[in-house]
Amino acid sequence: MPTTTVQENIALLNMMSSDNLEDDLKSVQLHCPSDRRLQSDGACVEERVRTSRGDILVAVRGDRNKRAIITYHDLGLNYAANFQAFFNFVDMRSILDQFCIYHINAPGQEEGASTLPEDFSYPSMDALASQIDFVLGHFGIRSFIGFGVGAGANILARYAIANPQKVDALVLINCTSTQAGWTEWLYQKINTRQLRSSGMTQGALDYLMWHHFGRSTDDRNHDLAHVYKDCFSHLNPVNLSMFIDSYLRRTDLGISRDSNTIKVPVLNVTGALSPHVDDTVTFNGRLEPAKTSWLSISDCGMVLEEQPNKIAEAFRLFLQGEGYCR
């Protein structure tokens, strides 16, 4: 807000009597930001894509004749909850005009998903990565720019390692390149069992909030925290437990700076308050320096929601630097 406007408002308030001010405040209608729901807004066309491990939902936005951006979401989210607000952000409009976005949903994580069968064997992280080939074949995509968060970032990284000729560049947020440690393994096992037996418990909810935002989320942005707590409570808990378990059983990416590293340009992003900062630093040390940029966004944990303007600008500059965006 301009300084002159603030000064004028202060002067106006000083001139008003306390009674008049109280009357004016009573007439103000309050709007609750927490009414926001993380559901599809209809901007994407959803299609089922058949794979060797069952169908998956892919949401498409834009002209399919343009270069492809493929997104992959994190734990506890789907394409709408993870990416919709960010790609609707005003600073992303120039990018949307130049690309077609393909949002991949992990099996059973879409809105209103029915519970997966008891005998369903949830794909491993490598198998989830291999499903991307079916998406490329279905839509006739030769190569793409990947945009992933958390578990989705790990999946896209796996695909790029195995198929460098099909990936043009990667934007990976909070990407972990190592296998789960003992603390994570034990904590996650408890959560997955609770999700299967009791649904979304407070313990599982607390874990998801920590995973996405880090600590003190309510202090930083109470309304945003409320929105995501509501989002997590509407998930299919059994399906989520399967996805979490798959992520928990992930293998090390098996890359190093000296050999077998990711061969495409990578924008490696985290939030300064994210619990995954150290993971991104480790990941960065295993990438080729000439093709990698590590970016830590201050004062946030979930960068797409808390600092969308900074991520949009970084994304645009990254694409421009690689010759994929005007």
TrEMBL record:
InterPro entries: AB_hydrolase_fold, NDRG
Pfam family, one: Ndr
Similarity comment text for this entry: Belongs to the NDRG family.
Descriptive protein name: Protein NDRG3
Species per Swiss-Prot/TrEMBL record: Euphydryas editha (Edith's checkerspot)
